[in-house]
Design brief:
This protein is α/β, with parallel strands linked by helices and about 350 residues long. The strands form two sheets. The protein has a nine-stranded mixed sheet. A three-stranded antiparallel sheet has the order 10-11-12, with no helix packed on it. Strand 11 and strand 12 form a beta hairpin. Helix 11 crosses helix 12. It is globular and about 55 Å long.
Amino acid sequence: MMMPGLWLRLMRGPERRAITSVKSLVSTGLVAREDETALSKVEANFSTRLTPEVLKQIKLATLDDPVYRQYVPHTDELNFRADERADPIGDKINSPVKGIIHRYPDRLLLTPTHTCAVYCRFCFRRENVGKAEASLNKAEMDTAMAYIDAHTEVSEVILSGGDPLILSDRRLAEILHRLAGIAHIQVIRLHTRVPLVEPSRITPALIKLMRIRPAVYMVLHVNHVAELSVPVKKAMARLARAGIPLLSQSVLLKGVNDSAETLEELFRALVANRVKPYYLHHLDKAQGTSHFRVSIARGQAIMRALRGRLSGIAQPTYVIDIPGGHGKVPIGPEYLSVNEIVDPKGRRHQI
């Protein structure tokens, strides 16, 4: 449990700053002082960051709290298994130039930054996020844009990273307008946690710069209904009223949302706030994440239970990214046979 006095001072103090270290977690009572040394070893490998909004969403300083579990470091993260990888979905082998991940013919990822507003303990890019050198400088951005311009088969660009909304309005506007100047780009997707963890970032100025051609979609990463606070719902409403299509993606996480009841509550709340559940991701095999892992069989059982409870607009597609960069596929019964999975090109892989 948290220490009430420290917690109240944290939330009512004149400066509401993000927590970026284990030391700060100890000072707020979110982590016991006797755990600081062990957790510092986790911090040496993987970045820590929680925003003031996330701190408000945490109700209990224990792993039983679904928000706490997602953001507060744990020593289980030092348990690396043989089948876990630093690059679990093959970003590097699909990166022809820095900042571009081109896995599918008609769409690609542009990753201008590897900084996030928060750092999830299960992130599949956890080896790279938080590293300033991974962000694109002007020359690297020019090279990335030239690649997009040259590949006329690409109609959709996904801004990811990192989190694109961590960028200033000026820099984000520059990227969006450069993409808008490429005739064959029809859709831009922003994949982001920011409306969930820093809802004040969703300003009229930010919304205005997204009103461009191509069509701009926003995909929100949300895993539990506890993340849908009043400020978050207001931020989503601002986006929806402005005509920005909103989708969600969630990760199936042990101890966070691995039950039909929990996901039903989340998906119903999202639809009620004009957000279409898009993907439920099976957890990627990033290093030090096994304590979050749910079996595929368990995930499929949950999805079968949801089929009878929720309408089609509240049903996401349950998917897995095949290790090694082979792509994302649904893992319903038609795609899975024993321990074999078929990728988008018809190739078979053992899992």
